[in-house]
Amino acid sequence: MKFLKPMGEYLGGIEFSAGYRWQHWIRAISIFALIATGFYIANPFITYANVSPEPTRFLQAYLREWHIIFGFAMIGAVLYKTFFFFFFREGKYERASLKDAFNIKVALQQVGYYLLIAKHPHTKGVYNPLQFWAYSMLYVFFYGIILTGLALYAEVYHNGLGAFFYPLAKSVETFFGGLAYVRIWHHIFMWAIIVVVFIHIYMAVYNAVFGKNGGMDAIFSGMKWEKEDH
Q1: How far is the C-alpha of 220 from the C-alpha of 21, rounded, in Å?
Q2: What average pLDDT does the chain have?
Q3: pLDDT over 90 percentage in the chain
Q4: Where is each Cytochrome b561 bacterial/Ni-hydrogenase domain found (predicted)?
Q5: pLDDT confidence of 193, banded at 50, 70, 90?
Q6: What single DSSP character describes residue 45?
Q7: Which residues contact 66 (CB under 8 A, 6 or more apart)?
Q8: How many beta carbons lie within 10 A of that of residue 229, not counting itself?
Q9: Is residue 89 pLDDT above 60, yes or no?
Q10: What is the distance between the alpha carbons of residues 182 and 169, in angstroms, rounded to a whole number?
């Protein structure tokens, strides 16, 4: 007979800890806020200003301020998740996904599953090969947009954190061939993140609907389920 058991019987009772879920939602909210404010910063299409002697009380300045706030929030979440994967004890279940990441047979079976022509393969970690490589590329884009974003930030704010990041900013600027190219690559990384985020949402919804294992609910409740034969 088949029965459901908490996946935590080998993941310690909860697949996603509270810290893990918090960083996910901080990162998710930050991404959408950064996209919205970034589009306006790149192309200010509304003119609005308060009557004030201060040179910062206009819409572009407000949105740039929120862009920076959400930018540092996302940096914190990305760094937390990176340390989680490499150094946290709970991260070993994600690291176990490396065993299937280079398995062509499992990857092809996973493609068949998404095409509704094959069963879901048994995977050794919490991510199947397609998920693992999608998330890996997402973090490449995260660090790309973070580095280019910090370079742009340090070119405007020369004190405090701006001064701290200025040597890094100049290295990034030199690497990309100038500040204009840093800005272009910042936009390219943004569009890459948008594409991967939509793929992520699709895969999460698909697995929740067809997998029926609470995979999408886990990011809210922390609990995922698997079927086991007895």
Answers
A1: 7
A2: 82
A3: 39
A4: 16-222
A5: very high
A6: -
A7: 33, 37
A8: 6
A9: yes
A10: 10
Task: Spell out the domains of the chain, with CATH numbers in brackets.
Answer: 2-229 (1.20.950.20)
| Residue 119, C-beta contacts closer than 8 angstroms, at least 6 positions apart | 109, 113
**Is residue 182 within 8 Å of residue 152, measured between CB atoms?**
yes
pLDDT in tens, 61-72: 889 999 999 999
- Which pair of structure tokens corresponds to residue 124? 């050794």
Task: Give a three-class secondary structure readout of 169-214.
Answer: HHHHHHHHCCHHHHHHHHHHHHHHHHHHHHHHHHHHHHHHHHHCCC
The answer on pLDDT for 154 being more than 50 is yes
Token readout for 73 is 């929030």
Q: Which two tokens stand for residue 19?
A: 């810290």
CA dihedral 178, 77, 197, 139 (to 10 degrees): 60
